[in-house]
């Protein structure tokens, strides 16, 4: 059994995270419940920053908040000196409510609305990562009207495909994101931005995919982009001050996943950038990264209560839990794999094999296929590991299932940071037929 971060098995044979017995968590907060190991989040954030500090590189480590966002997480990110990558007015609003320093907020997205751009400009965020010509012209219109300056990066698609699931690869040319390098879109964007008196082009961004286990793709991207930098220097006298390499650093979900130590991604990236800077006679730029999954992914564990079982002799044994694709859609969306244990009988011998189903009306609502477990009983607590990224943030209300609460644990203390959705929450926007009155 592989335990992440501070997770251990205590003398009651229960899974403990952050010094807190997970069975107690289920009694206090119910199930399903997302539990975050705050110490592991800290370790990851500090690890990334330290790798830059030790190399003496100016940097920003921007937490990709799409992985998991709530006010408490943004406050923790601030405490840890992280910047923030946001993609919507919802994430911007969360940053505002968390009193996150706006100069460290970077606004991403391939279809920022006029209202979202206004909101970002009102908040005075640090940087907009421009994705396409449509939003470039929208932004130009707005800042000219407001007479407000704005720092921008351009997101490029460098034509590098990371070795990962096709749906989460974004660096290849055929991508909905960013300005393409080979067809000259990035050149055109640079010309437009340079001609604008309110825009300041600080540098370049690329994000080549997710759940990446080696640094070849990052190194290749650096090499490709520095070739462009040389051209841009000659053509436009533009030398990027910032190289934003995006996120995508992998984590261990299941046996066989072999990510590098988080700092290694940074070390290899720095080495490649330094090398190319030297080869091209350019200054080493400020380096920004945007880890999401590798900060919160394996810090999160979801606890469920086991309900029904179904045995199909000679075929499969199913067990169903009180959540599923509503709190973790990744298995259905990406065939993502997870590991889990019985949190209330953590060290019991695992001599049975069960496939873990969610409770939604959808055959694809499976959380784990073929998980080794003890003989499971009704009301056992199933812990599914590594659900801290793209679990809560992708949670949904399919079948009108309410979203679970989120609990942070650290040093033997637990604190509720997102309340469970109630049935009233689920109905609060519904209106009855033929009237405009709320239910
Ligand atoms: C632009 C950008 N940066 C960062 C990330 C975070 O990726 P990860 O959570 O894999 O680190 C993403 C993920 O989609 C992204 O699109």
Which sheet architecture does the biggest sheet show? Answer: 9 strands, mixed
What is the CATH architecture descriptor of the largest domain?
Alpha-Beta Barrel
- Which oligomeric form is depicted? single chain
Helix content: 25-40%
The CATH H-level homologous superfamily of the largest domain: Alanine racemase
Overall, the morphology is: globular
- Cα-atom radius of gyration: 23 Å
CATH topology of the largest domain: the name is: TIM Barrel
Describe this structure in words.
The structure is a single chain. The protein has 439 residues and is α/β, with parallel strands linked by helices. It has two domains: 8-30 and 299-427, Lyase, Ornithine Decarboxylase, Chain A, domain 1, CATH 2.40.37; 38-296, Alanine racemase (TIM Barrel, Alpha-Beta Barrel). The chain contains twelve helices and 21 strands. It has helices at 22-29, 38-55, 71-79, 89-97, 114-123, 133-146, 185-194, 216-236, 262-280, 293-296, 330-334, 423-427, and strands spanning 8-9, 15-17, 20-21, 33-37, 59-64, 83-86, 105-107, 127-130, 150-157, 179-180, 199-205, 242-244, 286-289, 300-312, 316-321, 340-342, 352-357, 366-373, 381-385, 406-410, 413-418. Strands 4, 14, 15, 16, 17, 18, 19, 20 and 21 form a nine-stranded mixed beta sheet that branches. Strands 5-6-7-8-9-11-12-13 form an eight-stranded parallel barrel, surrounded by five helices. It is globular. The mean pLDDT is 95. The site of pyridoxal-5'-phosphate has 18 residues, from helix 10.
């Amino acid at each position: 059994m592989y335990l992440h971060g501070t997770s251990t098995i205590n003398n009651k044979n229960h899974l403990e995270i952050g010094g807190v017995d997970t069975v107690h968590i289920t009694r206090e907060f119910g199930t399903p419940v997302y539990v975050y190991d705050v110490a592991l989040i800290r370790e990851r954030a500090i690890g990334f920053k330290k790798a830059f500090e030790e190399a003496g590189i100016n940097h920003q480590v921007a937490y990709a908040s799409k992985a998991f966002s709530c006010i408490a997480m943004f406050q923790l990110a601030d405490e840890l000196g992280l910047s923030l990558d946001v993609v919507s007015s919802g994430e911007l609003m969360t940053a505002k409510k968390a009193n996150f320093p706006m100069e460290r907020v970077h606004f991403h997205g391939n279809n920022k609305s006029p209202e979202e751009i206004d909101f970002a400009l009102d908040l005075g965020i640090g940087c907009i990562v421009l994705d396409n010509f449509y939003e470039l012209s929208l932004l130009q219109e707005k800042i000219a009207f407001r007479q407000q300056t704005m720092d921008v990066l351009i997101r490029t698609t460098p034509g590098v495909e990371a070795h990962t699931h096709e749906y989460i690869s974004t660096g290849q040319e055929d991508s909905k994101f960013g300005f393409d390098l080979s067809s000259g879109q990035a050149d055109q964007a640079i010309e437009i931005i340079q001609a604008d008196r309110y825009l300041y082009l600080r540098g370049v961004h690329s994000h080549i995919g997710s759940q990446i286990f080696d640094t070849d793709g990052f190194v290749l991207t650096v090499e490709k982009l520095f070739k462009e930098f040389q051209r841009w220097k000659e053509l436009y006298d533009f030398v990027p001050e910032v190289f934003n390499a995006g996120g995508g650093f992998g984590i261990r979900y299941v046996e066989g996943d072999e990510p590098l130590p988080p700092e290694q991604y940074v070390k290899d990236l720095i080495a490649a950038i330094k090398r190319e800077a030297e080869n091209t006679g350019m200054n080493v730029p400020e380096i920004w990264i945007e880890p999401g999954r590798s900060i919160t992914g394996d810090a999160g564990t979801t606890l469920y209560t086991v309900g029904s079982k179904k045995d199909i002799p000679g075929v499969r044994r199913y067990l169903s839990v009180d959540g599923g694709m509503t709190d973790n859609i990744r298995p259905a969306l990406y065939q993502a794999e997870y590991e889990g244990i019985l949190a209330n009988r953590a060290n019991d011998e695992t001599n049975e094999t069960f496939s873990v189903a969610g409770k939604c009306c959808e055959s694809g609502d499976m959380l784990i296929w073929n998980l080794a477990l003890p003989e499971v009983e009704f009301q056992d607590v199933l812990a599914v590991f590594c659900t801290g990224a793209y679990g809560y943030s992708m949670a949904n209300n399919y079948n009108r299932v309410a979203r679970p609460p989120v609990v942070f644990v650290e040093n033997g203390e637990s604190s509720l940071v997102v309340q469970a959705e109630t049935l009233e929450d689920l109905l609060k926007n519904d209106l009855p037929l033929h009237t405009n009155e709320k239910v």
